[in-house]
Amino acid sequence: MPAELCPFILATAGHVDHGKSALVKALTGTDPDRLPEEKSRGITIELGFASFRLASPAGIFSGSGIPGRRR
Questions:
Q1: Which of 4, 6, 62, 63 would bridge with 24, disulfide CB 3.0–4.6 Å?
Q2: pLDDT, tens only, 4-59
Q3: φ, ψ for residue 39 (rounded to 5)?
Q4: Cα(first)–Cα(last) distance of the chain, in Å?
């Protein structure tokens, strides 16, 4: 990676059903909830990751969905 590129990483954390995975999906186009159980239950169980190349010189954006917790 050229020295002028600076990777940008965004990690999301919060309570269940606050839109963390939806945010990562909206920004990257990749659903970080990839497991069948996550799909059927509608919650993140394992860490999920997504990345894409930015159109600017900033380089690469990476997002992660971190499982929330119930109140």
A1: 63
A2: 666 677 777 778 888 888 888 888 888 888 899 988 988 888 888 887 776 666 56
A3: -65, -45
A4: 42
Letter string b/e over residues 36-58, b meaning 16 or more CB atoms within 10 A of that residue's CB: eebeeeeebeeebebeeeeeeee
Amino acid residing at 41: R
Is the CB of residue 16 less than 8 Å from the CB of residue 66? no
Sign of the dihedral through C-alpha 50, 27, 46, 43 = negative
pTM attached to this predicted model: 0.66
